[in-house]
């Protein structure tokens, strides 16, 4: 536990790493998709907006996932936004965190403006943008106020509790204990790997794992969490980017996977609610 608390303390000091430059073309294409999304968002053009989304599309609110399975399912009440004073939004910075040829994760600072161009809200939003057969589009979004909106004590508590939940998750995972994993998972839960998984109960992936299949297909024995970094913090939600390594029954590392995990606090329990895995790095 002393080692874990030391790791958590170091996490408070870390800034998210920037995506490497070798995927610059993917980053620029994904950035263009977000900019086109924002342009149509400011026109309140719901049909055009959906041309800049990847489906299934996930909107992650406070403790809940809204999944639009296909074009036409995505909804946004622009009338409500206007009644709140909104007239337009801007992206103030787009920071690429992780990138591959077909997926880019961004941390974005944004501002909402009123009728007289006054600032009515500033915040941060995390986006996962993916390439599908018809081009690049936003797959996942989770927004909220800037971190300065919560106290330092509340921020530190959220990071510490969420980090402990991640380490406990890996302990249960390496014990191949699906019942124990339920203590560190939330349902519903979504994961984007080579395919999209959406668990609406405790018995389906990614909440329930088939460890026998992993042992048979990969000779998997255990996994190790590496390079855990804080991306964004709210009182009841922490977004981490991380890497984990998988080892086979001979103790040899056979893959390293960059990822983003989103943990939420629901009914006083911290658990995983969304995961996005980048392509595995084979040593």
TrEMBL record:
It comes from the Bacteria. The keyword Signal applies. Residues 1-21 form the signal peptide. Keywords: Signal. This is DUF4440 domain-containing protein. The lineage of its organism: Bacteria, Pseudomonadati, Pseudomonadota, Gammaproteobacteria, OMG group.
